[in-house]
Amino acid sequence: MKLFDRYLIGEAMQVLIVGSLCVIGIFFGTIEFQRVMDLLNQFGLPPNTVLSIMMLQLPTGIAYCLPAGVLIATLVTLARQHNDSEFLALQVSGVPTRRLVVPYLMMGLAASFLAYGMNEYVAPQNKLLSQKLVLLGIYAAERPFVGQPIVQVKDANDRMSQTMVFGCPNGRQVKGLLFLDKASDKEMNIIWAERATWLEGQWVLENGNLFDFVKGDGLITRGNFRRMKFGSNAKLASYIAQGPTSSLEKTTSQLRAEIDGFEKSGKKAPAELRTQYYRRYSHPASCFFLVLAALPLMTVRRRRSLNVSFVYGGVLVVMFFLLQQICLSLSENSRLDPLVAAWLPLSVLCLIGLGFTILRRNS
Questions:
Q1: How far apart, in whole angstroms, are the C-alpha atoms of residue 341 and residue 325?
Q2: Across 82-154, where does the E strand assignment appear?
Q3: Do 255 and 223 share a structural domain?
Q4: Among 32, 85, 199, 214, who pairs with 28 as Cys (CB 3.0-4.6 Å)?
Q5: pLDDT value at position 293?
Q6: Number of separate domains in the chain
């Protein structure tokens, strides 16, 4: 059986790599690709910087997609063994079914430790480094919105709230900049500058005027300026130098220390923070427990049931990601306890798998 274990784990690992890469490819081909294109279009970051940012995001993507990869690997390998009648041959030889599960559980356990290690020692550091690289790119960019003479920003109600109009570009400078800020339905703030230079993460405006346009009163001049800093973040350099700010950039111990800080001050830690802390344990553990969700495939007896098995596997993968997002949203809006939100998705799938396994064995 040791030879069989090595053979099975080796085959499952190949499918695990392919399955994880497929999920990561979908993840990077949608969310991350859009983010990268935004960086290219808005700030004109060079392709090598954008590529470096994407590579630094890979550990986070791998840790995020590894449980789904384990589930896909288990489902595909179990289906292949069933199709080749390997389970039937081993069971006829006197090997108990519970012994056949051991290699898959070993793979799930190893993947759990790998996911935890990446979440703790690799992904946060790389995530923080990628964010700093983005800020450095913005800080050193020639100028933002290259090739876009007009940039418009909408508010939460999908109404136009801000508009920037750029004049003729000349390196870091543009000859003429107009900024319109719709403060309300009856008032609009207007800034006009003869020349604008993108310098150290913000616009430096020269020789301009400030206006207020009030409905009923017309255009009112507020004043003029010879030089004024405007837009972006004047403290961008300090953000580059500081440590992790979001939960994805922090280790488990840093998240725990932040929660303890809230509790010592008599305040309740934000639900999003507590959910991310609990997910640092539940997400890696799902690599192990999702193997149990795939166990019903071991009880399939007829070849024509194989198509049903693949449908079952696809439903499990979709449910895994869907339940995570639903529970995360409910938790962040204080509709679900963070501890429950972190552990509920894998618990539901695990119970479904065990339930189907028991029903199939008793039928």
A1: 10
A2: 150-154
A3: no
A4: 32
A5: 87
A6: 2
Same domain, 154 and 136: no
Nearest-angstrom CA–CA distance, 67 and 291: 9
Same domain, 215 and 67: no
What is the Rg, in whole angstroms, of the alpha carbon atoms belonging to the chain?
Answer: 27
The greatest distance separating any two alpha carbons of the chain, rounded to the nearest whole angstrom, comes to 93
Answer yes or no: is 145 within a domain: no
List pLDDT tens digits, range 144-193. Answer: 777 778 887 777 666 777 888 888 888 888 999 988 888 677 778 889 99
Do residues 80 and 221 both lie within one domain? no
CB 78 within 8 A of CB 103: no
Q: In the chain, count H helices and then E strands.
A: 11, 6
Nearest to 300 by CA among 81, 95, 4: 81
Domain that includes residue 217, residue range: 150-231
289 and 160 belong to one structural domain = no
- Cα–Cα distances in angstroms (integers) from residue 326 to residues 140, 186, 250, 332, in the given order: 39, 40, 23, 10
Do 56 and 94 lie in one domain? The reply is yes
207 is written with which tokens? 């020789």
Q: Which of 231, 256, 281 is the last residue of a domain?
A: 231
Helices 123-140, 33-43: inter-axial angle, 10-degree rounding: 20
The pLDDT value given to residue 87 = 66
Measure Cα distances from 33 to 38, 129, 292 in Å.
Answer: 9, 18, 33
∠ CA 336-63-334, nearest 5°, is 10
Same structural domain, 75 and 132: yes
For residue 235 the two structure tokens come to 């403290």
